[in-house]
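Worked example 3 (structure in, sequence out).
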């Protein structure tokens, strides 16, 4: 029961850490994409949002027909569908996640429009985020069972030590008779419930005698 409780606690803690870390990383990615999108919208050039590493991001300026007018980064070909281009050209902000040819893993894409542009799109690979989250899951998967085992062994040891005075009283109770004057149950040093139980039983022996 103790081991099961530990498993549930660790699972809840792992889920909390996973979700909190995912939210924090997503917020960081969104902030970066918003800044890069603002740079493209303000300058009218894709180079304003050039990623640090080509395989981890991109920026594109596209025509309403889908032709790539400018691009930087690792994306290969248009990254927006016709419906997404139309929504962005109408003034809406488009946010999607999908695999993009030329980038590692899934990418988060933000698209919009500006006065001098038809449509622009900036994107960031989520491969680093996914690797980080996978590492967290692996850490809990490996460390969790070890922690449960150690905690269970420790709990078992503490429970055994706590019940040792009860076992001593049980053995003495098997030897005590009402005719044996002065025989008592041994009392533990700790002032706890076990000692009070022993005192009560010793008083009962006195009354019976």
């Amino acid at each position: 029961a103790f081991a099961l409780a530990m498993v549930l606690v660790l699972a809840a803690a792992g889920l909390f850490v996973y979700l909190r870390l995912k939210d924090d990383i997503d917020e960081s990615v969104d902030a970066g994409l918003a800044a890069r999108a603002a740079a493209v919208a303000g300058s009218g050039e894709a180079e304003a949002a050039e990623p640090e590493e080509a395989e981890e991001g991109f920026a594109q300026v596209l025509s309403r027909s889908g032709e790539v007018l400018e691009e930087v980064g690792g994306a290969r070909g248009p990254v927006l569908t016709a419906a997404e281009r139309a929504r962005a050209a109408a003034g809406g902000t488009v946010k999607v996640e999908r695999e993009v040819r030329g980038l590692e893993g899934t990418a988060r894409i933000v698209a919009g429009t500006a006065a001098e542009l038809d449509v622009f799109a900036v994107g960031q690979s989520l491969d680093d985020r996914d690797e980080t989250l996978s590492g967290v899951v692996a850490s809990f998967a490996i460390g969790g069972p070890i922690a449960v085992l150690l905690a269970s062994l420790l709990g078992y040891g503490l429970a055994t030590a706590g019940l040792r005075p009860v076992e001593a009283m049980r053995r003495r109770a098997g030897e005590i008779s009402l005719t044996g004057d002065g025989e008592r149950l041994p009392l533990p040093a700790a002032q706890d419930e076990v000692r009070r139980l022993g005192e009560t039983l010793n008083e009962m022996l006195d009354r019976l005698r």
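Notes: The CA atoms of residues 2 and 156 lie 9 Å apart. The mean pLDDT is 90.
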